[in-house]
């Protein structure tokens, strides 16, 4: 028989973590003695459905008319799939449903399907990295000049992109990181950093000039931008710069009284018509990139789901992080045995870029009441400790990585390129795992003792000693 010790952190184990031992309701959906059966059981607002068949293949429809009228659910479906690259061959898909929906169960001989129906919550606003409670807490840290938070605030306050009189480098009609329009790269990056940082400064100081500057830049780009060319780096552009835009929009919409709904219309249109298609194309393509790309795109995709109140987008991002067949999913980016990063043989900068993006999307989910940090037994924490340990000068275990694309399997040793050059990505993870959860991250702490207070980074939320300090 199968033993608990046989487990290798298969993704479908999350189903068993959710299944309760006490039930409030039970329904037999359909069945024939000796042939098949489908049973639904409820605890609280969550339903769990199990379907099994005998030694005959079978296709069944499962009506969901027993669900609460007017309530939206996310169906987490666990099914037999011989093409899944795990020992257990269980596929997972997530789809939004209501009591008007019908699920299909395609069962192999002697097979089955399990479904967890999760009632969907309303989004918290503001709720992209920071809530109203977080903003109030940072005010106290600044007022009391609490270190190292206050040191991060001073770095933010003094940065050129945080000034209410910031002078735009653009706007541009076309923006790109590479190709014909690569000359716009550093300029538009600075402009979008000014969007983000002025929105931050508005929340931290109450100075309306910062809010006006953030909105001014957003509006200028909305009035000018016509396209992002389909170059190699287009997904990175929309992921890195898109989060700055969405964070600012969320903050301005829900905290700045001087903004009107019509002010947001052109900016919203710019994002949905120019930025969003690039992300959708990335998800639709076969895996082709190193893992930092996937988490960079996904942090912005999830944030956009929150801002636009689009639960399907948000859930799609979470599903990618947990189950995606891509180097950018937690399963394929960090080793569960050692914490090695898919890009450890490439260089250390991209490892930090990748884990920083993962921590960002985990923090975004946390503010919405969803715990991605704990996925696969806190695997992100293990990745952080591995990166910190190596960059501090210690030896770590390394093995040749078999990546999803097959393109990045020839790194024979861990790379010392950029070793010891730390990005400000460590406070966000330390804050969660140590301050919130009471766990230990000794190597990450050593890094923080070297780099505190965290300051600016073009590609990260940054200023973590202030922004992520529970």
TrEMBL record:
Which InterPro entries has this protein been placed in?
A: Aldolase_TIM, Alginate_lyase_dom, Chondroitin_lyas, GH97_C, Glycosyl_hydrolase_97
Please give one Gene Ontology molecular function term for this protein.
Answer: lyase activity
| Stretches assigned to the Glycosyl-hydrolase 97 C-terminal oligomerisation domain | 22-117
* Alginate lyase domain mapped to chain residues: 175-390
Please tell me whether the keyword Signal is annotated for this protein: yes
Q: Does the keyword Plastid apply?
A: no
Q: What is this protein called?
A: Glycoside hydrolase family 97 protein
One Gene Ontology cellular component term attached to this UniProt record is: periplasmic space
Q: Which UniProt keywords apply?
A: Lyase, Signal
